[in-house]
Amino acid sequence: MRNVAVQMYVSLDGVMAAPEKWSVPYWTDDHEKYAYERLLAADALLLGRTTYETFAAAWPKRTDDTFADRMNSLPKYVVSSTLKDDLDWNNSHVLSGDVVGAVCRLKQQPGKDILLYGSQQLFNTLIDHGLIDDFRLWVFPIVLGGGKRLFQGAGIPSGLNWPTVLNVLTVMCMAKGGSDLLHDPIAQDLLASSIPARLAYVWTDGTPRVVALWFHWNGSELVMSTFGGAPKLKALRSGDRVAVVIDTNDPPNRMLSIRGPVQVSAVSGVIAEYASAAIRYLGPEYADGYIRSLPADVPMARIAVQPEEVVLLDFETRFPSALRALGLVG
Asked: Which CATH superfamily groups domain 4-177?
């Protein structure tokens, strides 16, 4: 069974209309790369008439462009009561009449995602019938003050009850602006917690390892600290992605896969972030005695990450399997 996946540009006040007029100043190579990845994950497009006509006037004119080549080659299903099947854009097909039934039949076919761009009226119709499986909302730091909004909010549809809470799986932060990094309440709570964790990393021989640590989140940077010598420091410095495994009393465990610039440094003595985490976890009195018991020149590793992408994963498996699932090891 296929998923209907939505990719939508949205302003801070929920407007999704005419993004070509207001999203361009924020566009970066990161947006381009991510949009292409999402396009590769789909093997069909689902569009309303207005969005289709806008796309059909632009995409066929683009050549020597891998993104355009895929847009032009994919099957395109257009929901319209006025268009006929003699459409000029390659591989385009009209869905008319029972749109909900037609989309249900598309979902029952084998294949990749069905990608929905724009198409506010169609989007809300599909929400009303519980047919959207994956929301990819690109929130831009701009308030437009008017225009078509993504969620109509009219009445109580059968697919969603208002208000509704969506399960946020991934939040990405783009270089020139976008949504806050950690809107995910679970990830936010985990990073603000005082529970111990383990850092998963790849050892110099390519095998996955984990090391116990405490971490400190200051709102923009995740600082982790652990005891370590030169081999551990060398292993920790490789790559631009780390995985932080949060210890929980009961499965599933929580893993935060964090991508971004990683800085690892050797420190002699207890670093401030380690002391702060110890106080939060152990309490001031016990933490003070514990820290005083450590050698003044105890070797420590300070791992600082400025997250560009955070993925929250629940798992009930061993670390190597979880790391392979995240692409940290082969």
From this structure: Dihydrofolate Reductase, subunit A (3.40.430.10)
Is 116:47 a contact under the CB 8 Å cutoff? yes
- Cβ pair 217, 187 in contact under 8 A: no
The domain locations on the chain are 4-177, 188-325
Residue located via tokens 């924020």: 26
Residue-wise pLDDT for 208-253, tens only, equals 666 767 777 766 677 887 787 666 666 565 555 566 666 554 455 5
For 73-176, strand residue ranges (E) read 76-79, 92-95, 113-117, 134-140, 170-172
DSSP calls for 208-266: EEEEEEEEEE-SS-EEEEEE--HHHHHHHTSSSEEEEEEP-SSSSEEEEEEES-EEEEE
| pTM value > 0.70 | no
Cβ neighbourhood burial of 315 (10 Å; 0-12, 13-18, 19+): middle
Tell me: the pLDDT tens digits for 112-159?
A: 999 999 888 898 888 888 888 887 888 887 888 888 888 765 444 445
CATH of domain 188-325: 2.30.110.10
